[in-house]
């Protein structure tokens, strides 16, 4: 049993922000040079991608649950 449902949008956002953190940690540690302006497009693009993934996930889940009924009464297509 899962403790909570998977939210791919938050997963994408967390992965992108972790990547930006690793880039700047490597820069601070002297492993490589990262220009200051690299974070802006990465964070903005990652958040936009996370938003799109979240919207798509919501639509897919809504479509899956709208086809299921919880009552035992026959629906409009099962009348008779």
UniProtKB/TrEMBL annotation:
Alphabetized UniProt keyword annotations: Membrane, Transmembrane, Transmembrane helix
Protein name: ABC-type uncharacterized transport system permease subunit
Transmembrane parts of this sequence: 35-58
């Amino acid at each position: 049993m899962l403790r909570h449902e998977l939210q791919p949008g938050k997963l994408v956002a967390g992965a992108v922000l972790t990547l930006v953190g690793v880039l700047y940690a490597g820069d601070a540690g002297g492993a490589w040079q990262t220009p200051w302006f690299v974070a802006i497009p990465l964070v903005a693009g990652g958040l936009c991608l996370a938003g799109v993934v979240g919207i798509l996930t919501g639509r897919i889940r809504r479509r899956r649950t709208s086809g299921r009924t919880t009552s035992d009464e026959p629906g409009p297509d099962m009348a008779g």
